[in-house]
Specification:
The chain has 331 residues and is mainly β. The protein has a domain at 136-204: Thrombin, subunit H, CATH 2.40.10. It is 4% helix and 54% strand. The chain has three helices and 32 strands. It has helices spanning 158-161, 165-168, 244-249, and strands at residues 3-9, 12-18, 21-26, 30-33, 36-40, 43-49, 52-57, 62-67, 72-76, 80-86, 92-97, 102-108, 113-118, 128-129, 134-138, 142-147, 152-157, 175-178, 181-185, 189-193, 199-203, 209-211, 214-220, 226-232, 237-242, 258-261, 264-269, 277-281, 288-293, 301-307, 310-315, 320-325. The strands form eight sheets. The protein has a four-stranded antiparallel β-sheet, with no helix packed on it. The longest helix has 6 residues, at 244-249.
Length: 331
Amino acid sequence: MNYTLKSKTVKCKEFSVLDRILFVIGMDKTLYINSNNIKSGNFRFFGIYNNSQIIFDQIIFGSLLYNNQGKLIGEIQDYALRHIFTFTNGNSLVGGNDGNNIFYGIYNFSNNTLLKRYDKLGFNGVYKVLNDKLFLSQNSEKFGVFNFDNELIWECYYKELFSKYESIGAGTTNILQVENKLYVELDKTYCLDIEKGNNESNYNYKFTNSENEFLYGLQFLSMTEFQIATLNTKSNTVNVIDISSEFNTLKVYPDNRIVVDNSLIYFSQNMGDSIAKIGVLDPVSGKILWKYDFEKRSGMIGALKVNGNRIYAHTQDKTLHIFEKQANESI
């Protein structure tokens, strides 16, 4: 496997990728689409709806919708909307701001209608929408499942799972969903059923990412000892591979943050031998398939995204690096 550095976009404040279309907000607050200067303003990316990029225009205090061809297809002038989830009936759960108040709502993008407004949802907002009827919410003490009438179905305090939770303290806890199960990452991973919140099983590994029925997680045993753990949630089997030798030989000291795409793990390094690195790991063989060392002046890696045959890495010096897989290799 080999990627080549295709391009660099300097003075990049924020970016988003929709199919092969690259949206960039520059440090000068200008919106660029595939390097074309679209308009000046003050913008933020607010999610993707129906294969369209939602962009918050802070000057008009409204939202712009661009399709996957980079064409403007709609404007919402009454609200700044952040898309969260699309229901099977076509309506969407959104986060909104009308200039005076921040709220949640059920919105129909087809006719630009706010169907329902919530001043509050859950304990402290929506962490994850589970299905058409339920969502997950959490705060620093507990998490729980609510319906969209904002009625609590069940709740669980973190200290019920991990007795030392209060003494350690934590912010937002990583919780993954696979079908009708939740996987809560604390000192290890706890599996609960969505319907009633019963703790069905525990795993002595931390899983941070999911793809299809698989969970993945890098395990940090020491500064030089690493493992990659994979949980097959259908067979309920865990596969663990020691990757210490592979990483140490190539002088890689990975971050906890990984991206999983097409059964491969994309990792980054911000600490270690004074330079940032990214790479691709095969979780089955435990081998690093490709690695790239940034120049020291690039600083740390902020965002890391994978889209098709491209890797996007946004570094501390506000440069967006785009890597492309060689044409003769499969995605």
